[in-house]
Amino acid sequence: MPTYRERSILSGMTVGQAMQKIVTRLAPDTGITDCIRYMIKFKSDAALVSHDKGPALGVVSKTDIMGAFYGGLPVETRVKDIMMGPVRVCAPEEGIDAALDEMNGSGIHQLYVKSAKKIVGTLEFSDIVGLMYRYCRNCQKGRRRPGDLEQENLPRLKVTDVMTKQVAVCNPSHSLYQVMDLLSVGGIKAVPVTGQGGKACGIISKTDLALAYARGTEPKTRAREIMNSPLVSSGPDASLSNAILQMFLNDVGHLFVLSPETQEIIGVVSLSDAARFRSGTCKACSASRIL
Amino acid sequence: MFVDTIMDKQFTCLHPEQTIEAAVQAFKSAGAEMNKTIFGMMVIDNRDRLAGMVSMYDILLCIRPKHIRILGEMEDIDLNLAFEGMNKRIRNMTVGDLMSTDLVTVGPNTHLLMAMDLMVRKHLRRIPVVENHRVVGILYRGDLFNRLMDALVGL
To answer: Would you say the C-alpha torsion A142, A147, A151, A157 has a positive or negative sign?
Structure first.
C-alpha cells in the first residue's frame, strides 16, 4: 500500500515560531461591557477566562457576546456565565498544519498555545495567512516557479477572478435580531446593508453589534441606526492589488464588489482569499485548505 | 520609606471625553513641565474620582492596524499607507474608550517595598496613590528605583 504523506509548505514550521505571546485574559467576574472593551482594544475576537494566572476556565468570543445580546441578557452579566469550553489548545512544538487542521475542524479562528500546563500564547488565523503568503511565493514545489511570477498574470489578477459570489445582505429596516441571524447562519463576520434597488448603503460587523450592546442599544433597533458607512467596495475589474490596498487603508478584512451599472453587491473578497491567490498557493498543498 | 515621600504630588489628569490626540498632547506638555518623559496618565471623572489610566501601550494597541501581519508579508505594499487609518483612530477615539479600568492603587503610607513588589509582578510603570477615594499623587517606577538604589548603594 503506497504511503501517502501530506505535503504542505507550512510543514516544518512550529506553532511556537508563529504564535503571539499576548493573551487577553479576563477574570470570570468581568462584566460583558469590560469584555467588549478588551476585545476592541486588543482587536481580538475572543478572550480567555481565568483567575489571575490560574488555569483557563473557558473562552468568550464575539459570537457568545452576540448570543447574550440576542437572548436579552443584561450587559452586566459576567463572562463566566456566557463563556464556552473547552479551551482549544495546541502545543508550541506542534506543526502549524496540525494547528490549522484543528481550527478548520472546529470552525474557529484562534487557538491558545499551552506549554507545561500554562497558556503561553495565542495563534490566530491571520498569523497563518501571513506566513503562508510568505512561504508560498518562494515554494519550489508548486506549479508556479518563482520566475513565473513576473510573466504570469498574477499581479494583474482582477477582483472578479477571486471574489465569492454568494453574499448575504440585510436591509436597513431589519432588526438587529435579523442581522444576528444572518451572521450566525452564514458564519460570517459582517453583513452589508442594502437599500432600494439592492444598492449598498452600509455594513454591520460583529464588532458594531458588540458596541451597540455595550452602549445599551436594544436588539429590536433597526439596522440603519447602527450601520457603518460607507461600505468599502470596488468594481469587478479593479486589480486584486488595489483591492488589498483598499482593505489596508480602511483597516477592514473584506471588500465588497459592486456592479458598475447597478451598484448592487455582486461579490465579496476577503483578505485571506486575496493573500491565498496572490501567493500562488497551489491546490496540491494542504495549506490551500485555508478558508 | 513610604510612597508619600517619593510620589509626584503635582500631576495632570485626563478626562474620558478627550480624544487620544489631546491625551498625547497632554503627555508632552506635562513631560516638559515636570522635566520627565510622561507616557501615561490617570483619568478622572466629573466627580474627581479615579476612573482609569491611559498609557502609551493602550494607545499603541488602539492605532495598530488590524491586519498588519498579513499585509506586512506583502513586500510591494507600502506600509506607510497605514498611517491614514491610524490618524483617523487617534482623532476619533476617546480616552474613555481606551482607558484601563481595573487599576492597582496604593496609599500614601504604603511601604516602598510593597509598591515595588506590585510594580514588578504586574509590570506597572506608574501607580496612582489614593487616599479616601481621592487621588493624591502618582508613583513612578523610575523614582522608586532611584530611591531604593540610593538607600542600598548610596548612588
So the answer is: positive
State whether residue B77 sits within 8 Å of chain A by CB: yes
User: What are residue A171's phi and psi, to 5 degrees?
Assistant: -115, 165
User: What is the structure's pLDDT at A1?
Assistant: 57
> By the CB < 8 Å criterion, does A247 face chain B?
yes
- Chain B hits for A249, CB-CB cut-off 8 Å, are 81-82, 84-85
Using alpha carbons, list the distances in angstroms from residue A84 to A107, A223, A240. 14, 28, 38
Q: Is A283 exposed, middle or buried (0-12, 13-18, 19+ CB in 10 A)?
A: exposed
Chain A residues whose beta carbon lies within 8 Å of the beta carbon of residue B67? 126, 247-248, 251, 253, 271
- Omega before residue A74 within 30° of 0, cis: no
Q: Say if residue A287's pLDDT is above 60.
A: no
A119: which strand partners?
A: A114
- Of A76-80, B69-73, B116-120, the least confident: B69-73
Residues A109, A44 contacting (CB under 8 angstroms): no
Asked if residue A130 lies in contact with residue A279, where contact means CB atoms within 8 angstroms, the answer is no
**HEC string for chain A:** CCCCCCCCCCCCCEHHHHCECCCCEECCCCEHHHHHHHHHHHCCCEEEEECCCCCEEEEEEHHHHHHHHHCCCCCCCEHHHCCECCCCEECCCCEHHHHHHHHHHHCCCEEEEEECCEEEEEEEHHHHHHHHHHHHHCCCCCCCCCCHHHHCCHHHCEHHHHCECCCCCECCCCEHHHHHHHHHHHCCCEEEEECHHHEEEEEEEHHHHHHHHHCCCCCCCEHHHHCECCCCEECCCCEHHHHHHHHHHHCCCEEEEECCCCCEEEEEEEHHHHHHHHHCCCCCCHHHHCC
How far apart are alpha carbons A287 and A81 in whole angstroms? 36
| DSSP one-letter code for B16 | T
Q: What is the mean pLDDT of chain A?
A: 83
Is the pLDDT assigned to residue B84 strictly greater than 70? yes
Q: Is B123 on the interface with A (CB under 8 A)?
A: no
User: Which of the listed ranges A3-12, A160-169, B81-90, B105-114 does the model predict with the highest average pLDDT?
Assistant: B105-114
Write the residue in A43, A275, A278 that is nearest to B66 by C-beta. A43
Whats the size of chain B, residue-wise? 155
* Cell numbers given for A271: 483578505
- Answer whether A143's CB lies under 8 Å from A282's CB: yes
**Average of pLDDT values for B58-76?**
83
